[in-house]
Amino acid sequence: MSYLVLARKWRPQNFHDVVGQQPVVRTLQNALRRQRVAHAMLFSGVRGVGKTTLARIMAKALNCESEAEEVPCNVCASCREITAGTAVDLKEIDGASNRGIQEIRELKENIRFFPGSRRYKIVIIDEVHMLTAEAFNALLKTLEEPPEHVYFMFATTELHKVPITILSRCQRYELKRVDFDTLSRFFAKIASAEEVTISPAALEMIVREADGSVRDGLSLLDQMFSFAAQDSAGTVTVQDEDVVQVLGLVDRRVFVTLAEAVLAGDLARCLEVLEETYLLGVDLKRFSDDLLGFFRALMICKTTEDAARLVDVAAQDLTIMQEIAAGVSKETLYQLFQIFMQGAEELRYAGQPRLALEMTFVRASQVGEVMPAAELAARLDKLIAASAGLVAGRPDPLAAEPQKKTVKNDPARPPAPPARPGPETVVREPEERLASAVDSVSQAAMAAAPEALQETAAERPEQAPDSGAGRPAPQPQAPQEKGGGVVVELKQRDVLREWQGFVAYVKERKPWMAQTLRLCNSPHLEEGKLMVRFDNPADCTLLSQGDNLKALTTYAQDFFQAELYMEICSLACEVSEADGASPRQERRALAAEPLVQTVTEIFDGKVVGIRTGPKFR
Ligand SMILES: [Zn+2]
Fold first, then answer.
1. Rounded to an integer, what distance in angstroms lies between the CA atom of residue 587 and that of residue 403?
2. What is the pLDDT, as a whole number, of residue 212?
3. In contact, 494 and 478? CB cutoff 8 Å
4. Residue 155 CA to ligand 1 centre (angstroms)
């Protein structure tokens, strides 16, 4: 007796056998019960999800002779004929090989006559998108007003290739990929019916490989059942290794191990796992794609609450992925995804895929923890603020508790008065280690303005006594000039004279901003605008960004007590406005930004990517 493959043996013969597709099944059954079945139906979806199967069940149901509510009955003559493939009134056409106008003409000729023995003539055209344009046109009229005794059912994997004129004349049913759990249950049921034992991991790999297609999965299962060993009692058992060996697939646990090793920066472990995988004879290109898919899933687990909807894996796998994702930043995952994506690309053209993959892991394991620049800037702000507070010996508004304690715990230092000696007496105390660390880094970063730090030290003590409760040092002419928010006359020489005071004022609020302001060459006033000009465009990139500029404008208005607007300008700004700086120049400028360099130095990191353009501003 010839062997019937699983896909045919287990082909659903009625609606409740169909795997997944509940909405479509329900609609079809209701249409049958209420006698509202359309004369032209189109089933679309990826391969092996049940398009032709549903069309055949529908054909059976329409011609079923049973009086029962649930059709098809599968016992009447009509049903049996269709199951056996001998029904004369059911015409199945393969659109790929009968695509011309001649075939359609013959078909139209044929359906003019009433059915021989059954109620309806039913035409099923598979892969209908393969028909020629003329063939489609020849069908139009018939579809518009089909004869009472004819039903058309089309199936296609490429819906977009079907002309809109045809689509609009059909009732459309879109079949979905079958989800992981449904497929998993179905295949487990088949395995037990076929008396084959299959390990959960092996089943999971097959379901994953099937990618939502029932037929693909059944073919794989068939292959595995034939391969698996049979023991003396006649029981066939499919092991994990069998699947790996026959299908070249990798257990998801391997990806979990690799991801954990990469995130821990454990290159040795990565290479070890790769070696094991390689020895199993796995297709590395395929492996690399699956790995990319795994990191995509991690990213989704990290970014969405409802990951189960987007990541189609077994529940326990999802939990593991969520746990991994929880312990790592979104930026790191993104960075790793980019690396593996590039790796997968390189692998496609690599003469030695294994080496390419290993190098990808070398890169990936070096990623470490990636942090958004904004977070780094905020940390730096805090650090510098803390150090400024310590150097000046008074609590800084931005650096709350820790340095206050330092001051308090120091018995040799009375609370406030000695904190404001003459400018030259401000020296770094040994216990102010944090301050000096930051100072030294700042000094390095501010090579362009070496005098800046001395200025800080010099002006701070003078500022401290006057500045009261964190307000700016009142300027000699400021009081009489602020008349209830009325615009005041601010002179260029006032700006020049008070500029250092302003920088100090900004420093109390945003230390990095003050560092940048020091790099500016002579600010000047122009029609109510305070123009701050920089020689090097790299110096002012961050400062001229929306929120930062807004904050700076507010500081200027508060400090000068005048209705003025800040304008940040550089030679390159002018150039780029005129003829547009290339994104590359822009990125280079960002990388040279003193703030960025200071941050990378303090945290001993490196810049791995710079994103620019309107989307990221
Ligand atoms: Zn029947």
1. 37
2. 92
3. no
4. 23
Q: Provide the residue type at 104 as one letter.
A: I
Whether 6-174 shares its CATH topology with 180-247 is answered no
Select from 3.90.640.10, 1.20.272.10, 3.30.70.20, 3.40.1790.10 the CATH code of 252-365: 1.20.272.10
Task: Return the closest-CA partner of residue 504 out of 595, 406, 392.
Answer: 392
The pLDDT value given to residue 87: 92
Nearest in space to 297 (alpha carbons), one of 285, 284, 313? 313
Report pLDDT digits (tens) over 478-517. 444 444 444 456 777 778 888 888 888 888 888 888 888 8
Pair of tokens at residue 451: 């005098």
User: Reading across the β-sheet that carries 565-570, which strands appear in turn?
Assistant: 521-526, 529-534, 565-570
Going from the Cα of 119 to the center of ligand 1, the distance in angstroms, rounded, reads 12
d(CA 413, CA 390): 12
**Taking 80 as the threshold, does the pLDDT of residue 414 lie above it?**
no
Please say whether the structural domain 180-247 has been given the CATH code 1.10.8.60. yes
| Distance (Å, whole) CA 603 – CA 598 | 9
DSSP state of 483: B
User: Domain 6-174: which CATH class?
Assistant: alpha beta
Using the predicted structure, report yes or no on whether residue 461 has a pLDDT greater than 50.
no
- How much distance in Å is there from the Cα of 18 to the middle of ligand 1? 17
**CA 595 → CA 351, 552, 586, 602, distances in Å?**
42, 16, 15, 10
How many angstroms is it from 447 CA to the middle of ligand 1?
Answer: 90
| Distance from residue 36's CA to the centre of ligand 1 (Å) | 19
Contact 519, 534 (CB under 8 A): yes
How does residue 178 score in pLDDT terms, banded at 50, 70 and 90? very high
Residue 62 Cα to ligand 1 midpoint, Å, equals: 9
Distance of CA 219 from the midpoint of ligand 1 (Å)? 29
Distance 140 CA to ligand 1 centre (A): 31
**Distance in Å, CA 115 to ligand 1 centroid:** 17
DSSP state of 568: E
Rounded to the nearest whole angstrom, what is the distance from the C-alpha of residue 61 to the centroid of ligand 1? 7
The strand pairing partners of 342, in sequence order, are none
Find the 213 Cα to ligand 1 centroid distance in Å: 28
* Residue ranges of domains in the chain: 6-174, 180-247, 252-365, 441-472+485-602
What pTM value is reported for the model?
0.57
- pLDDT band of residue 455 (cuts 50, 70, 90) is very low
Distance 146 CA to ligand 1 centre (A): 24
CA separation (Å) from 291 to 71, 242, 278, 323, 391? 46, 21, 14, 17, 51
Q: What is the DSSP string of 286-352?
A: HHHHHHHHHHHHHHHHHH-S-HHHH--S-HHHHHHHHHHHHTS-HHHHHHHHHHHHHHHHHHHH-SS
CA 143 – ligand 1 centroid, Å? 27
For the chain, give the mean pLDDT: 80
Tell me the DSSP string of 234-268.
S-EEE-HHHHHHHH----HHHHHHHHHHHHTT-HH
Q: Residue 175: CB partners within 8 Å, gap ≥ 6?
A: 21, 24, 43, 44, 45, 46, 49, 50, 51, 54
* Start-to-end C-alpha separation, the chain: 70
User: How much distance in Å is there from the Cα of 362 to the middle of ligand 1?
Assistant: 64
Between CA 33 and CA 71 the distance in angstroms is 9
Ramachandran assignment for 148, one of left (phi > 0), alpha (psi -120 to 50 degrees), beta (any other)? alpha
